[in-house]
Amino acid sequence: MASSTPPASHAHLLEQPLIAHLGTVRPDGSPQVSEMWFDWDGQVARFTHTTKRQKFKNFEHEPRVAFSIADPDDPYTFLEVRGAVESIEPDPNADFYVSLQRAYGLQIGRGDADVRVVITIRPTGFVGVTGGQTEAEQAASKH
User: Fold this and answer.
1) Of 13, 17, 137, 123, the residue nearest 75 (C-alpha)
2) Which of 53, 123, 130, 142 is least surrounded, with the fewest CB atoms within 10 Å of its CB?
3) Class of the 11-134 domain?
4) SS3 breakdown of the chain: % helix, strand, coil, rounded to 5?
């Protein structure tokens, strides 16, 4: 069962510059998963993207998404976040893109600023997994 808030045991994964695996639905109904940088403000996740790529078309077709973040110290511990695209805003100077570059320790530049956007995703549920099991699965295995 998905929680409406991140489990305290997994909240740290949202607060680090880790790679999220963002899943969207293509217009033909097939899934697409991409590695993405993100920013978490405690309420929403923001991603950078361009209007020229397939994932942008996916957002327009189906706003429901999910992403997961693995713990770099334990790949069997991860957080799944389910949600929906709340907004897509232009980033005409690529300021948000550059802020993510800094957070992730890179310096790529603003080359595609004219098509750069900020995708804001509002979570609808969180599932924390530790040792390959959700909290509910762990509780059930103790009985």
Assistant:
1) 13
2) 142
3) mainly beta
4) 20, 45, 35
CA atoms of 118 and 138, how far apart (whole Å): 37
Whether pTM > 0.85 for this model: the answer is: yes
Strand partners for 27: none
> Length of the chain in residues, anyone?
143
Query: CB under 8 Å to 38, separation ≥6 — which residues?
Result: 20, 22, 45, 46, 47, 67, 100
pLDDT at 1: 57
Six-digit token string for 18: 């880790």
Q: Tell which residue, 137, 141, 116, 103, has the closest CA to residue 20.
A: 103
